[in-house]
Amino acid sequence: MMKKKNRCCLRRGMHSQEGELLPEKEPQTRQNRRMDIQVFYGQEEFVVELKIWRGAAYEQKGYGQLVDYLQAKGLKRGYLISFCRKEKKLQKPDWISYRGHEIFEVLVEC
To answer: How many Cβ atoms from other residues are within 10 Å of residue 83's Cβ?
Structure first.
């Protein structure tokens, strides 16, 4: 049986050599706004925003929402995962800069 390297799944309390992965679904910020997913992995914290593709204006709102969460948490990098049904040309996952923050955007065709 082959071992899979660099596999990551969101199960509460998953352990690895680097430490424990602790995902939180819809945790609150200090302003009582809810983030979609917040992950604590070792000493690192990750914020992930999930969206359904509804056009470029909605995408911009998603960037703004994610940056607001990042600012509330004192973070500079976040992740945006958008699900789309061929309404947008899929692109390679990539980092973008938005309001002084770095966002890794992934489009998932479904």
So the answer is: 13
For the chain, what is the HEC assignment?
A: CCCCCCCCCCCCCEEECCEEEEEEECCECCCCCECCEEEEECCEEEEEEEEECCCHHHHHHHHHHHHHHHHHHCCCEEEEEEEECCCCCCCCCEEEEECCEEEEEEEEEC
Global confidence as pTM:
0.70
- What tens digit of pLDDT does each residue of 9-62 get? 444 444 444 555 555 555 555 555 666 888 888 889 999 999 988 888 988 999
Distance between CA atoms of residues 33 and 47, nearest Å: 13
User: b/e string for 1-29 if b means 16 or more Cβ within 10 A?
Assistant: eeeeeeeeeeeeeeeeeeeebbbeeeeeb
Angstrom distances, CA of residue 11 to CA of 3, 17, 26, 65, 81: 19, 16, 15, 25, 18
